[in-house]
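QA checklist item 7 of 12: single-chain prediction sanity check.
[x] sequence parsed
[x] length recorded as 317
[x] structure emitted
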Amino acid sequence: MFLVCSALAWIVIKITRPPKHLEGLILGCCSAGNLGNLPIIIIPAICKEKGSPFGDPKTCHKYGMAYVSLSMAIGAVLLWTYVYNIMRISSSRAMMTSGVISESQQNNIAVVKDTPNDAYTLLLPNTEYEEKVWFSDKIKRSLWKISRNLNFKTIFAPSTIGAIIGFCIGVINPIRKLMVGNDAPLHVVEDSASMLGEAAIPTVTLILGANLLKGLKGTSTPVWSIVGIIAVRYIFLPILGVIVVQGAIKLGLVQADPLYQFVLLLQYALPPAMNIGTMAQLFGSGESECSVIMLWSYAMASIAVTLWSTLFMWLVI
């Protein structure tokens, strides 16, 4: 999904031609959806609703939160490896072009010579040479270029570490029996983590509101770039999600669970991830523009997510 969204973002960049320092931001906003707090809010609300199409509220909440947590964990890993490095490379190129790099940006941005000129060119085959090259050689060359520019320290960001620990606890049976369940010896650890997690949801929502408030001040963000991001996230991506999920169901790759199918579809209709704003602040590139993009994206989300959620329920029930 991240790669397909990046291809759509590349089309937006080519059509709207934004400033160089915004290319990575557009790629990030199109590629990464808010797989964190929004599904955690939406799914329990649907389960508790009277006449919920997903059956018993307790069972719906139990399995729904499991599906959402898995999606959030995988999304966090991809966000801090793929999107982070794309934005880092793009911002470093923009700073090199302008010739202004502060000391803090030098610490956060690893500038490497002979790298692609634009962030989106990392996602495309190299067209510098006209001679024919074996497809396997093209793949090796692209992987080598990407790996040479990756910042592997971000793989161990707090959210990624949490996802890895969660996978270990869930997959390794002895550890799961030791910590998960009412009869587990270390059940207090699960309760403590659950209480902290529940408190984090409203906290993150408040932070989101504060970030959106900055967007009201207005900047010179290209209008058509914002329109392109909204079109990708709320039109093309949900349609693609319906095609992918329905195709997987017909091929027997997805289990016949309406709630699971709904969560899969919902991932394709979410606004951009909040952590993209954190990355923009970290690199000092496109911070104010990110606030404007987030403002309009989340303003449209109130309509788009509602409409697509209704359609998704109709498809899976």
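[x] summary fact logged: The domain at 2-316 is CATH 1.20.1530 (Na+/H+ antiporter like fold).
[ ] second reviewer sign-off
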